[in-house]
Write a structure and sequence with these properties.
With about 170 residues, the protein is mostly beta strands. It contains two helices and twelve strands; from the N terminus they run ββββββββββββαα. The chain has a single domain, classed as Porin, CATH 2.40.160. Helices cover about 15% and strands about 45% of the residues. The protein has a twelve-stranded antiparallel beta barrel with strand order 1-2-3-4-5-6-7-8-9-10-11-12.
């Protein structure tokens, strides 16, 4: 992983192997973050962002939530209260708050906002027959945020779960 002070304006998500639920966030040829699901099924994922390890886990059906844990994984550092369409409010233990919005249920596009409703990132996915990949446009505000890499990986986690759920016919976030 590469520690960054200011993120580039354009990043890409790639899935190196179609047979694995493993994704990398890259800038040119540098990997900035990674997300991996250790099992083919289930909602537990492991992430690396800015040199730190995290886990994400979704729970609940009617009111889904995602817990964020930081290594050594003994306490939650944040929680995302989700809507069924994929929007969420991110509450971090340090008091920071963010919002993840899906502008339309008909597209696989999400936006990340800070608590003053300032746009930080716009993320779009595209999927081929077997791969899920995408682009992230980072605003100046997002590029300077200490939480931006974590938020991008968290958003991609949510996107990957919704994509998987929709392809298996399941409903919910």
């Amino acid at each position: 992983m590469v520690t960054t002070k200011k993120l580039p304006a354009m990043l890409s998500w790639r899935q190196p192997q179609a047979s694995r639920r493993y994704f990398e966030l890259v800038s040119e040829d540098r990997t900035l973050a990674a997300l991996r699901f250790p099992k083919l099924t289930g909602t537990l994922a492991e992430a690396q962002a800015d040199g730190t390890s995290y886990t994400f886990k979704r729970s609940g059906f009617l009111r889904p939530k995602v817990t964020i844990r930081k290594a050594p994984f003994d306490q939650d550092i944040g929680v995302v209260n989700m809507s069924r369409r994929g929007d969420g409010e991110v509450d971090m233990i340090n008091g920071r708050r963010y919002v993840i919005r899906r502008p339309s249920v008909w597209s696989f596009r999400w936006q990340v906002f800070d608590e003053s409703d300032g746009l930080m990132a716009d993320v779009r996915s595209r999927s081929g027959l077997l791969r899920l990949e995408g682009k992230a446009d980072i605003t100046e505000k997002g590029a300077l945020s200490a939480d931006m890499l974590l938020l991008l990986v968290l958003e991609w986690y949510i996107m990957a779960l919704i994509r998987r759920d929709s392809s298996t016919g399941a409903s919910g976030a």
